[in-house]
Design a protein that fits this description.
With 676 residues, the protein is an alpha/beta fold. The protein folds into 3 domains: 310 residues, Rossmann fold, CATH 3.40.50; 174 residues, Thiamin diphosphate (ThDP)-binding fold, Pyr/PP domains (Rossmann fold); 130 residues, Rossmann fold (3-Layer(aba) Sandwich), CATH 3.40.50. The protein contains 28 helices and 19 strands. The strands form 5 sheets. A 5-stranded parallel sheet has the order 1-2-3-7-6, with helices on both faces. It has a 5-stranded parallel sheet with strand order 9-10-11-13-12, sandwiched between helices.
Length: 676
């Protein structure tokens, strides 16, 4: 085997010798990075190195000079704990330096413990296992949709690329992976390649302790093409990738590998999964694989060999740019490109709703969706098998289901797969060019929670429609009646939670979500009808843009301020009318997150900090409202689970009629008077 001692004759080495040496250099960087940090996961990173090397040096289409090239192949490291492999590859690409590798897992470094999307060359934030597979499916969906938006010859199509995902045993054990994979197979995503690094090791020991699944059989049953290879044989890897690229279905390549492959004494040792190798083991391994003991050894010969394709890639990029310029001479395609890939939103009109009408906000969402979809061809999404309840059925009818046979379809029939839906939406948004939405019941937001968190962490523009937002669900009972969910979602940083009061607010909230290109949004919507507010759409939209606004006011300074969201805004107005001897201000708070971002002057003018009684009214837990109502305020909510009964009966049972709310407020006022 060639070693660093022979570098003077590097040009005379065979291609195989150069490849193996360069792969070993990457393994050396992995070992050194984890050892210096005294933290990390070397074993899996080393077992995956051979596949990653072949992919990056022979198949991955990138722009060496622009990590954000629009038509680049996407590479997703779903096994995010193998991050030192990712960073070593980025270094070899010239997108990082050795100092970055030396600061692995340190504060403010470009090399955190798991890949984060802010790092140039990293397509998505991974670490929570399985989600990288789902996001990879989403990227492949976005590519397929955009590819068929541009009616040009395939050789000149500006969007035509592959998504490659590297996953490990832990990824496939997470149910999210199989849920997303089932959809990929159903949709026939031939632009998706999943490599499964099967090294038979995880933190607690051999895989057989916890899993005996025949993944080859499972994936084949879901419509995937499966290949089994030696994951350390570069020729087998190359052949498998070549086959995968000519198929019209998604591909699973199962690479049988050895944990910590290449180490002197620790091959196959599951304890190398999550702990640095001892320095003596690293030294012995380096000698064995032809590297010096030098820390972070990266000879220019290996780097140059890794980048051997760069001149041809640059030529390919230039040709692509020329074809793009030719394509965009078509004014319609130019507009489409600017709106999709460019991310430019046109002026969006809102649907009209008649004041005084009664309409469930879920129905208003459906009406608004249809209205927006006609203006924005890149709105794409669907429902987790709740089209009639989420009011997305008309969208599905108008634009058709996305499929292998109908890649121009804009409706994604997710089936009962809430978590895969949310994760796929994240991948679509990260790819860019499309605006994804997904609908289900609010109570099932729990199923989506890990993906909602990653959406917020990555700053993706995804729009979640959560209907049936309170105990007013009625007969389905407490399992389907969200009590804590609205406030729980509000605890997620960088996540806008909208609970609109009526149809007009719903449209305004939806528009705000569309315009929030770095913040995910959730719209919490009613099953029951609500009166359309007697206010202009302009004033309501302006109020939504501030997160909270006055929907009914009094003459002079208020004695009481009612703070309400969603269906309880109309309840608050009705209660204020009943207590007309009091000076009462009614405030709708469609989005607390937006309100909190406003200047203190606005917030204090809207909700004076002292001298006025504040009452919150929301059909959910009272926790969290104390910051608005203060120590002497009253929070009217429901701090227990619901019950199965018609909504009108539950309204009375839980104290949400106008008379009951009035009485609670008057009783609270009497209690305070007695105290003082």
């Amino acid at each position: 085997m060639r070693s660093y001692h022979d570098l003077n004759s590097f040009l005379e080495w065979s291609s195989e010798e150069k490849d193996q040496f360069t792969t070993n250099v990457i393994k050396g960087l992995i070992m050194d990075g984890v050892r210096k940090a005294n933290s990390g996961h070397p074993g899996g990173a080393m077992s995956s190195s051979d596949f990653a090397y072949v992919l990056f040096t022979q198949f991955l289409n990138i722009d060496p000079d622009n990590t954000e090239w629009e038509n680049r192949d996407r590479f997703v490291l779903s096994a995010g704990h193998e991050s030192m492999l990712m960073y070593s590859l980025l270094f070899m690409n010239g997108w990082m330096n050795l100092d970055d590798l030396k600061s692995f897992r340190q504060l403010h470094s470009k090399t955190p413990g798991h890949p984060e999307v802010e790092i140039p060359g990293v397509e998505c934030t991974t670490g929570p296992l399985g989600q990288g597979i789902g996001m990879g499916v989403g990227m492949a969906v976005a590519e397929a949709i955009l590819n068929h938006m541009f009616e040009v010859e395939s050789s000149q199509n500006p969007i035509s690329h592959y998504t490659y995902v590297l996953a490990g045993d832990g990824d496939l054990q997470e149910p999210i992976a199989l849920g997303a994979a089932a959809l990929a197979g159903h949709w026939g995503l031939g632009n998706l390649v999943l490599y499964y690094d099967s090294n038979n090791a995880q933190i607690s020991g051999e895989i057989g302790r916890a899993d005996s699944t025949d993944y080859a059989g499972v994936f084949e049953s879901m419509g995937w093409k499966v290949q089994k290879i030696n994951g350390h044989d570069h020729e087998e890897i190359k052949t498998a990738l070549e086959k995968a690229k000519v198929l019209d279905v998604p591909s699973l390549i199962i690479g049988k590998t050895i944990m910590a492959k290449g180490t002197a004494n620790r091959e196959g040792d599951y304890e190398t999964h999550g702990a640095p190798l001892p320095q003596e083991e690293i030294d012995e391994t380096k000698e064995l694989i032809g590297l010096p003991s030098e820390l972070f050894y990266a000879p220019k010969e290996a780097i140059k060999h890794f980048q051997n394709r760069f001149p041809k890639l640059r030529e390919k990029i230039q040709t692509w740019k020329e074809n793009l310029n030719s394509t965009l001479e078509n004014p319609d395609l130019r507009i489409l490109w600017d709106q999709t890939i460019g991310g430019t939103l046109p002026d969006i009109s809102l649907p009209e709703f008649t004041s005084g009408d009664s309409m469930a906000t879920r129905k208003a969402f459906g009406t608004t969706l249809d209205h927006f979809a006609a203006q924005l061809p890149n709105i794409t999404g669907g429902s987790a098998d709740l089209e009639p309840s989420n009011y997305t059925g008309n969208f599905a009818k108008n634009y058709g289901d996305f499929s292998k046979e109908n890649p121009k379809g804009r409706n994604l029939a997710f089936g009962v797969r809430e978590f895969p839906m949310a994760t796929i939406m994240n991948g679509m948004a990260l790819h860019g060019g499309v605006i994804p939405f997904g609908g289900t019941f609010l109570v099932f937001a729990d199923y989506e929670r890990p993906a909602l968190r990653l959406a917020a962490l990555q700053g993706t523009r995804v729009i979640h429609e959560f209907t049936h937002d309170s105990f007013y669900v009625g007969e389905d009972g407490p399992t389907h009646q969200p009590i804590e969910h609205a406030m729980a979602l509000r605890t997620i940083p960088n996540f806008n939670v909208f609970r609109p009061a009526d149809a007009k607010e719903t449209a305004a909230c939806f528009k705000y979500a569309l315009e929030s290109d770095s913040t995910p949004s959730a719209l919490l919507l009613t099953r029951q009808g609500l009166p359309v507010l007697n206010m202009t759409q302009k004033n309501i939209s302006n109020g939504v843009s501030k997160g909270a606004y006055i929907v009914q006011d009094c003459e002079g300074d208020p004695e009481l301020i009612f703070l309400a969201t969603g269906s309880e805004v109309s309840l608050a107005i009705a209660t204020a009318d009943l207590m007309n001897e009091k000076r009462i201000r009614v405030i709708s708070i469609p989005c607390m997150e937006i309100l909190e971002s406003q200047p203190d002057t606005y917030i204090n003018e809207l909700i004076p900090p002292g001298g006025v009684m504040k009452i919150s009214i929301e059909a959910g837990i009272t926790f969290g409202w104390e910051k608005y109502i203060g120590p002497n305020g009253l929070s009217i909510g429901i701090d227990h689970y619901g019950a199965s009964a018609p909504a009108v009966d539950l309204e009375s049972e839980f104290g949400f009629t106008t008379k009951q709310v009035e009485q609670k407020i008057r009783n609270h006022l009497k209690k305070l008077l007695k105290q003082y």
